[in-house]
Amino acid sequence: MKAPSSLEALIEALRCLPGVGPKSAQRMAYHLLQHDREGAQRLAGALADATRRIQHCALCNTFTEDEICETCASERRDRSLLCVVETPADQLMVEQTLTYRGLYFVLMGRISPLDGIGPREIHLEKLAQRAADGVVAEVILATNFTNEGEATAHYIGEMLKARKLRVSRLARGVPIGGELEYVDAGTLAQAVLDRRET
Ligand SMILES: [Zn+2]
Fold it and tell me: How far, in Å, from the CA of 191 to the mean position of ligand 1?
């Protein structure tokens, strides 16, 4: 017996989610249609809404509904500091330390040759332009202390130093292999304060 084509299409569409194979896609589709049509409608609406409204901030690349995000637009931020993070979740972690009042650049990833992610995929050209605006005096590399995060920091550091920019890296309060998202705010705050020039 063959599933109706719209059901097939739903199962196929669900497979775009990370870690979802054919079996779990099928389970999700059946669950939504059988037990939670209201939830399915909400999901469809939220997806349509988010994909229509969310864009990347023209300055820092994070998600926003406006051309410039709230942080970049704020008058109260120190425009001479630019902190480079891998994800919006990492940006939130640095914000929660309450020790950093500069601006950000969100890579939306990290260099990972095995996954086909190179400098272009993480918007390094945009970062280079952003950092060279004449106002930024220091770029703080706050990528994760994983192998890929370190390689990304190294690559960006070399790229920006070649353009005569001052670059620093978070101090080693963050454990080796550590992801910022899982580090407590106190440790991360100290790592921001103790950052060292690269
Ligand atoms: Zn922004």
Answer: 23
Vertex 129: Cα angle to 128 and 132 (nearest 5): 85
% of the chain residues with pLDDT over 70: 96
Give residue 145 CA to ligand 1 midpoint distance, Å: 24
Single out the residue of 27, 174, 158 nearest to residue 94, CA to CA: 174
DSSP labels for 122-156?
A: TTHHHHHHHHTSSS--EEEE---SSHHHHHHHHHH
Confidence category of residue 81, pLDDT binned at 50, 70, 90:
very high
> Residues whose CB is under 5 A from ligand 1 (ion)?
57, 59-60, 69, 72
Overall residue count recorded for the chain in this entry: 198
Going from the Cα of 64 to the center of ligand 1, the distance in angstroms, rounded, reads 8
The pLDDT of residue 191 = 76
**Residue 133 and residue 76: Cα distance in Å, rounded?**
18
